[in-house]
């Protein structure tokens, strides 16, 4: 299982954690969250790059 914490991408007040079987599933869930919780219609390339760099394997 892989995960991405919204806080790791700079949203310090957000406790959301996207989890998935692979990085693409995690990014899909993170994009849905960004749209609904942070009013981001799309994820800019620099934010996507940062997000992908902090996705990690869960314990």
Supply the key terms.
single chain; 59 residues; alpha+beta; 3-stranded antiparallel sheet; 2 helices; 44% helix; globular
Percent of residues in beta strands?
15-25%
Unreliable stretches (pLDDT < 50, length at least 5) are: none
Using only C-alpha atoms, the radius of gyration works out to 10 Å
Number of helical stretches of at least 4 residues: 2
Overall structural domain count: 1
Q: Which structural class best describes the helix and strand composition? A: alpha+beta
Helix and strand string, N-terminal first?
EEHHE
Coarse shape: globular
What is the typical, i.e. mean, pLDDT?
A: 96
Side-by-side strand order of the widest sheet: 2-1-3
Distance between the termini: 8 Å
Sketch the major β-sheet. Answer: 3 strands, antiparallel
Count every beta strand, where a strand is a DSSP E run of 2 or more residues: 3
Structure commentary:
With 59 residues, the protein is an alpha+beta fold. The protein has one domain (2-57). The chain has helices at residues 23-38, 45-54, and strands spanning 2-5, 17-20, 56-57. Strands 2-1-3 form a three-stranded antiparallel beta sheet. The longest helix is centred in the middle third of the chain and has 16 residues, at 23-38. The protein is globular and about 30 Å long. It starts with a strand and ends with a strand. The relative contact order is 0.27.
